[in-house]
Design brief:
Elements (H helix, E strand, L loop, with lengths): L1 E2 L31 H4 L5 E2 L11 E5 L5 H14 L6 E7 L4 E6 L16 E3 L26 E4 L2 E2 L1
Antiparallel strand pairs: 1-8, 2-7, 3-5, 3-6, 4-5, 4-7
């Protein structure tokens, strides 16, 4: 088990991706998770960015209405795609009802782009490692970023 945020830890995938399951993760089929066990409840304002301020690859679902539902939906990609365990956290906006699952570079589950619950996808800037707060960047490039909170994933299998 790797704890996110540790210095000098490599977060590169250690195995080849597994084949896609017969069904895609959905908000209703995602596993039951203990939010505080899987994600840091001490969130910060803004999109999730890595230590260098780079954005991650991400999926959006614009019909999720709560932080917990966003966590469950995003964690479904970990459960169903163990070879794609690059989920580092999620960004959620209560006002906009937008949930973005954040993945490290080169761990994005490309097979999910056609998942009907995904309303948008974003190829980031090569973000890797644990999300870090950048108060000097929040809202500068994107004013809507002030509506979002970033929740870091606590553990990786």
């Amino acid at each position: 088990m790797v704890i996110l945020g540790c210095q000098g830890v490599s977060f590169a995938p250690t195995s080849a991706p597994t084949s896609a399951p017969s069904t895609s993760p959905t908000a209703s089929s995602s596993p039951t998770i203990q939010f505080a066990h899987h994600f840091d409840t001490d969130y910060f304002v803004g999109y999730c960015r890595d230590e260098s301020g780079l954005f991650y690859d991400s999926f959006e679902n614009d019909s999720i209405t709560s932080t917990k539902a966003c966590a469950v939906w995003c964690y479904g990609f970990v459960e169903d795609y163990s070879g794609y365990d690059g989920l580092v956290g999620f960004s959620f906006s209560e006002n906009r009802k937008e949930c973005w699952c954040e993945f490290e570079a080169d761990t994005f589950p490309e097979s999910e782009v056609n998942n009907p619950e995904i309303t948008d996808d974003y190829t980031g800037e090569g973000g890797s490692g644990a999300p870090k707060y950048h108060p000097d960047l929040v809202g500068v490039e994107f004013s809507e970023e002030l509506d979002f909170n970033c929740f870091r994933r606590l553990v990786r299998l």
